[in-house]
Design a protein that fits this description.
The protein is of the alpha/beta class. Helix content is 30%, strand content 21%.
């Protein structure tokens, strides 16, 4: 059965993303999908500092791509960035 692991990315959870990627590899997921939160619904209650910028998202994606190469993690990596400008259309893929 194909398996994907999805995670919403908050500033307070950035440190855990390499572990999340490792878990995706261990459980045999085909991909790890990282999603930046929308400023809608439940996310309206989040502190503003929990949202990362598009630049930070790109840097995070690059660091995870490097870790993937170092550790030979198999899952594909996807990141969807949600901003008022992109509304989820900017997708980083490795």
């Amino acid at each position: 059965m194909p398996l994907s692991l999805s995670a919403v990315v908050y500033r307070s959870t950035l440190h855990a993303l390499p572990f999340t990627y490792q878990i995706a590899d261990v459980i045999g997921a085909g991909k790890l999908k990282l999603i930046l939160p929308l400023r809608k619904g439940n996310a309206l209650d989040l502190e503003e500092n929990e949202f990362i910028s598009l630049e930070e998202a790109g840097q995070t994606f690059d660091r995870l791509t490097e870790a993937r190469a170092v550790h030979d993690w198999r899952p594909a990596l996807r990141m969807t960035t949600w901003t008022p400008d992109t509304e989820g259309h900017m997708i980083l893929v490795r």
